[in-house]
Amino acid sequence: MHDGRFPFEVVSGVPVVTAPEEIDITNAPELRSALLAAAAHGHGRLVVDMTGTQFCDSSGLHTLLAAHKRAQAEGGELLLVISAAPVLRVFALTGIDRMIPNFTTVDEALAQTSAGGPNGHRRADGAPEGSEQDGLVAHHAISELDAEVC
Length: 150
Known about the structure:
Elements: E1 2-3, E2 6-11, E3 14-18, E4 22-23, H1 28-39, E5 45-50, E6 55-56, H2 58-73, E7 77-82, H3 85-94, E8 102-103, H4 106-115, H5 132-149
Parallel strand pairs: 3-5, 4-6, 5-7, 7-8
Antiparallel strand pairs: 1-2, 2-3
Helix pairs in contact: 1-2
């Protein structure tokens, strides 16, 4: 299945969206549309395959955070698959890596969706999911990134 440039497939009932090599202000709205379309095919759970993503700016972070919040509001979860060091670094610096569970392979993320679900979910490192404080840290860090870009 495709939504513009962002293909997705449903694997064991879980939509998996393939993110582009670069996520920035020029394609974040299309990614948002693809995430919404993919989420309509699942039951609140969604995996974003970012293994090919080498760059993600603040608009991409905002898009992924919004998808995460939407999934949580529906009793689901958003899981990210990230392998590029620069992308992992941005997620770590902003604190988003503590809010949205992330994995190194799609298989690991899919195994997590069948293992526990959102209520008993733990991050890949075994720590509890992000707190409200983590959300404030991430919001502040994204605001700083926005300021640096301008």
